[in-house]
Write a structure and sequence with these properties.
Elements: H1 3-7, H2 12-33, H3 42-59, H4 64-95, H5 98-109, H6 115-151, H7 162-192, H8 200-219, H9 222-227
Length: 232
């Protein structure tokens, strides 16, 4: 059975569910990272605070506090990258034994499907987890670059290189944060993709539920209320 024939097993509803998933993934990336000026997302607001952090770092002596914060951020990316690898291994193990999935889904839906269909559905989860892993690794690397630039910021605030280098460090930290956030969204949608094991309609429901959760956290959470609180 070739690849084209295998994917012919997907119904139009399955394809519609996959299209909805992709639209939500790329649409959220665009909306969260380029939110409207009058209604900024939490991620966008934090980008400004990262830049502010680096400006204050220039005049802070010593800078142990700043290095500790960056170390904590790098530990977070390491944890999630390692977790993604473990999850990928588990998903691949299930792909090698699709009968387990067939039995589980059969108990829930009272239906059976070819083994290759379960492999395709698990492949979606694996691809999302791989995307998350790569983004976490890149975020870790970018935080490392930011750490090097922070170390290269002159101790004298009057040095003409101090603030420009601090700004570069802030930009790299923001890029790392963006990659980390994308990795987290990939993890969320990989969890939602498990709904496809039951059917196309559950995949649509879990995709919309994950999308609604992310939108609420970015645009309607208490975190955003705190960040947007006036400071004067």
């Amino acid at each position: 059975m070739n690849i084209v024939t295998q994917f012919d097993l997907l119904s139009p509803l399955d394809l519609a569910a996959l299209a909805l998933l992709l639209i939500c993934i790329f649409g959220l990336d665009r909306l969260v990272e380029h939110s409207p000026a009058r209604f900024r997302s939490v991620s966008y607001v934090m980008r400004g605070y990262r830049a502010e952090w680096m400006r204050h770092m220039v005049t802070r002596q010593p800078r142990i506090f700043d290095s500790a914060i960056l170390g904590t951020l790098r530990q977070g990316t390491t944890f999630f990258a390692s977790s993604s690898i473990i999850a990928i291994g588990g998903a691949l193990a299930l792909m090698s034994n699709p009968q387990t999935l067939n039995d589980l889904a059969g108990d829930l839906t009272k239906s059976q499907a070819p083994a290759v269909l379960w492999e395709i559905k698990m492949l979606l989860i694996v691809l999302l987890l791989i995307s998350a892993f790569l983004r976490f690794v890149w975020a870790h690397r970018l935080f490392g670059y930011a750490a090097v630039l922070m170390a290269a910021v002159p101790n004298d605030p009057e040095d003409p290189l101090a603030f420009p280098r601090a700004a570069k460090a802030g930009d790299l930290s923001s890029l790392a944060g963006r990659s980390f956030n994308r990795g987290m969204r990939s993890v969320y949608f990989s969890l939602g993709a498990t709904g496809w094991l039951i059917g196309a309609a559950p995949l649509m429901l879990t995709t919309l539920a994950i999308t609604a959760m992310i939108l609420r956290r970015e645009f309607g959470s208490n975190t955003r209320v705190v960040l947007m609180r006036p400071e004067d």
